[in-house]
Amino acid sequence: HWAPRHAALVRRAPARIPGGDMFLQRALCCCVADSTDANVAKIDIVAEGYSGEAGDRQVDLIPAVSSLEEEDTSPQPAMTFVVDLSSDEPRKDNFGALLFDDGEVLEIAMVRPDGPIARYNESAEENKDVRPGDLVVSTNGISRQPLKMLAEWRNRQSIKCEICRPMRFNVFIDKSGPLGINVVHSHPSKGTSLVLDSISEGPFTRWNDDHPGTTVRRLDRIVAVNGASGTPESLKAALQSSSGRTQLTIARKPQH
Predict the structure, then answer these.
(1) Long-range contacts of 215-220 (CB under 8 A, 24+ apart)
(2) Which residue from 170, 184, 235, 174 is spatially nearest to 204, judged by alpha carbons?
(3) What predicted TM-score, i.e. pTM, was given to this entire model?
(4) Is 78 helix (H, G, I), strand (E, B) or coil?
(5) What is the pLDDT of residues 136-166, one digit of tens each?
(6) Contact between 96 and 128 (Cβ < 8 Å)
(7) 3-state secondary structure at position 219
(8) Which of 168, 196, 201, 205 is deepest in the core (most CB within 10 A)?
(9) What is the C-alpha separation between 161 and 85, in angstroms, rounded?
(10) What is the DSSP letter of 127?
């Protein structure tokens, strides 16, 4: 079961920052105890947040080709590259990107088809196009200060960004009770991940105890459930409906 957690868990932004395109979804938690306290009361998943523009909605869960029969936990390595973007005037639309602040980096939640990023992608080197799920780890030399980074995206005519495509690996949990996790994410219908804000006793801690080489950490991202990727809304629904052995694909940003 999932329940809303107090807004104090979300350290930085309200549901939507006025005049911008950075969204932060209220945190959710999987609860262990029944209580009348709103922090632990058991409820179903409820999508909350801003209703985005028509035409921006991403597709729901996308089945993956990989089979769940083999427990492949070997990581796919991260890659980083530098992107230079420019415009004739400051871009209040973040150079055509929807950005999500997790407290340390900016996640590319969506790329609009008519902005500077889309034009950059048309001539980008192989595997160096900017995609939803990529992380902006620095902007014009600023890192680990996402609000200052975001100001560069909004107020400059040119920006130089270090982009990271996170490392990915699979974990396999036994979903037979509460998950013991709190997550935050961008708008329910935009974005590609659920960000783990905290992990408490449950299947994730049991996985970590048994697999010290592929432990799941705070600020890791769930990007697929049982081999299927999708929006935060779809990922939450898939987590809720899954039972028994469940494969989760985890994305991890580089450690600085």
Answers:
(1) 216/171, 216/250, 217/252, 219/102, 219/103, 219/104, 219/195, 219/253, 220/195, 220/196, 220/250, 220/251, 220/252
(2) 174
(3) 0.73
(4) coil
(5) 999 999 999 999 999 999 999 999 999 999 9
(6) no
(7) coil
(8) 196
(9) 8
(10) T
